[in-house]
Amino acid sequence: FPLDQEDESSIPYRILGEVFVCPQTAIEYAGKSEKDPHEETTLYIIHSLLHLMGYDDIEKGDRAVMKKKQQALLKKLKKLRLQLTAWYTGFYLINRSIALSLAVLSV
Fold first, then answer.
1. pLDDT by residue (tens digit) across 52-85?
2. Spatial CB neighbours of 57, under 8 Å, sequence gap ≥ 6
3. Model pTM?
């Protein structure tokens, strides 16, 4: 389901899609569930990127696989000290989270 056309074989990459995350939603949910808002936002981005990579969470078994992968990536971010630690919202937070998530996914 890549976003770009299959006949664009001259480019060395594929555009899989777009990711839109609302940091305010993550902040609100994190506040209600006593979670870190930066980690919650990063989780949303990782979850979205995994969908673009073909993971699914409709069936129980697939959901378990996807959740395990999400948790492993979050753990890797923490271990590498790449987890967001400053209190930023909006565009900067999303760009930084995407860059960090992509860096971890490419390792």
1. 889 999 999 999 999 999 999 988 887 765 544 4
2. 51, 63, 66, 67
3. 0.66
Q: In whole angstroms, give the CA distance from residue 96 to residue 85.
A: 11
Say if CB 39 and CB 74 are below 8 A apart. Answer: yes
Buried b (16+ CB within 10 A) or exposed e, 11-40: eeeeeeeebebebeebbeebeeeeeebbbb
Long-range pairs of 24-30 with CB within 8 A, sequence gap ≥ 24: 24/89, 27/89
- Tokens in use for 100? 């960090």
pLDDT of residue 38: 85
Indicate the DSSP class of residue 55: -
User: How far apart (Å, rounded) are the C-alpha atoms in residues 16 and 99?
Assistant: 16
Rounded to whole angstroms, the Cα distance separating 106 from 100 reads 10
Q: Which helix (H) or strand (E) holds 38?
A: helix 37-52
